[in-house]
Amino acid sequence: MRRSMLLVATLAVSLGACGKADMFSAHPDMVAKASGQELPAERVAEILTSVKGISLDPVAANFVANLWVDYTLLAQKLVAGDAMTDSLFIREAMWTEVASYQAGQFFDSLMAARDPLSAEKLDSAITASGMINIQHVLVSVEQDAAEAQRVAARRKIDGILAQARAGADFAELARVHSEDPGSAEGGGYYGPVPRGQFVPAFDSVSFALEPGGISDVVPTQFGFHIIRRLTDEESRPRFEEAFQGPLINGMEEAYYAELRESKKLKVASNAVPLAKEALLDLDANINGTKKLVTYSGGAVTVADFVRWIRAQTNDPVQGPQMLQDMQQTPDSNMQLGLQQMGERFLFLKEAEAAGMDLTPEQWTEVREMFVGTIDSIKADLQLTDDAIDPNASEADRRAAAAMKVDQFFDRMVTGQSRLRLLPGMLSWSLRSSGDYGVNPAGAARAIELAQAKQAVEGGAAGGMPGGAIQPAPGGPPVGNGTP
Q1: Does 473 map to a domain?
Q2: In a domain, 259, yes or no
Q3: Tens digits of per-residue pLDDT, 238-265?
Q4: Residue 423 DSSP one-character state
Q5: Within 13 Å and on the Cβ side, how many CA atoms surround 334?
């Protein structure tokens, strides 16, 4: 069972000035730099005015700049001969997925040891609930339908009933014939349900059925139904799933409370202002050493906090807005969020100490996910071996890679290519070791140039970053559903 590992309170901030702005003190017309390449304000203005409906504001300029940084760092790394196949690099780039598997295994082991829902507890819970599990098929008929329609509907439901009583798979009958939009696709299942859940006619027949029994045709204001009550054997896993969630949630909270107490976990008195300062510029705090949360034998630092926030907001499309929302988080919620982050940080430490790691199958899945996405992005960038001559000089290869990134942006703004996000935490990994920066003054200059160009052309801007730049179907393997 994979549990949520990331910060669960509502935190965040404006992406704002990202990167090492001091790189630009003498270059107010430069928006970003990465791996020796430069992104002029004039180029950003050109991109902004090429996307229909985009808003000419700092959010849009930073969106373009940070996207360019990520693609440039990746392209330059590739042409330098780094295939990024090192296991340690992939583990870091896919940190959220790796952490999800580790924490999931540890959580399962904890729950198994504590036996949250034994057979005896489940039997007692089923008996006490008074609930049942059913399937049904509906042939709908409007209450004011003509007699001919009612006769046709009745003939249809009678035929389905005959098939059900002859031993046909009831779930398949529901999927093929039922006109109940809430249950047909799932095989007609409802449950566990208490008495009184449905309209009286349907309810009374359902609860009168013996386990495994099939009803006669049941007329209601919705049409004609056939109801089947699940056998006790079929019902048991459905009851277990329904009852286990609240029990596990309670045990999870109890475990975190024990962890807080045993490890003497404490949020530092200055943690909230430190966290909010870090949120204003994640990249500048990527190696922050100040302590936000302390516990016996260690601490959660600003760098740890930034890593977790980056994992949540790594999507260049949605991330900036999430960060803006986080900046407005009340201090009390931030305090709670930092405590919860500390608990989950400790949980991962406990999982690692217990030797929890990916199975060979899980590691293969993570690795293939990473490599497949990288190959796809390389193809989108047209950064193939025949396009980048391995015999060319390093300077020529770097220039060619920069041109490929530039051409890719041209294709994106015209709708010929769709945005592909970097997988997992690859952006974080690239930035941790890369030379890059985004210049607020340069971004402001790009906005001025774009507004001037738009005014001359008589254009009107509106909306959020969008237009032709939209994520490709499916997106990257992001760890929002982590353990």
Answers
A1: yes
A2: no
A3: 988 887 766 667 777 888 888 899 999 9
A4: P
A5: 24
Q: Residue 78 and residue 446: Cα distance in Å, rounded? A: 29
Give the per-residue pLDDT at 316: 60
Residue with tokens 């939009």: 181
Residue 311 belongs to a domain? no
Is the Cβ–Cβ distance between 471 and 318 less than 8 Å? no
Q: Which residues of the chain have pLDDT under 50?
A: 1-19, 21, 459-483
How buried is residue 155: exposed, middle or buried, by Cβ count under 10 Å (0-12/13-18/19+)?
exposed
What pLDDT is stored for residue 293 in this prediction?
96
Residue finishing a domain among 212, 236, 260: 236
The two three-digit tokens of residue 384, written as one number: 């193939």
Write down the H helix ranges in 263-300.
Answer: 271-280
CATH number where 213 lies:
3.10.50.40
- What's the pTM value of the predicted model, to 2 decimals? 0.61
Q: Write down the residue that tokens 């009803």 correspond to.
A: 215
Q: How far apart are CA 303 and CA 292, in angstroms?
A: 10
Q: Is 23 exposed, middle or buried (0-12, 13-18, 19+ CB in 10 A)?
A: middle
Q: Which of 286, 138, 293, 287 is nearest to 221 (CA)?
A: 138
d(CA 416, CA 441): 31
Residue 473 is predicted with a pLDDT of 40
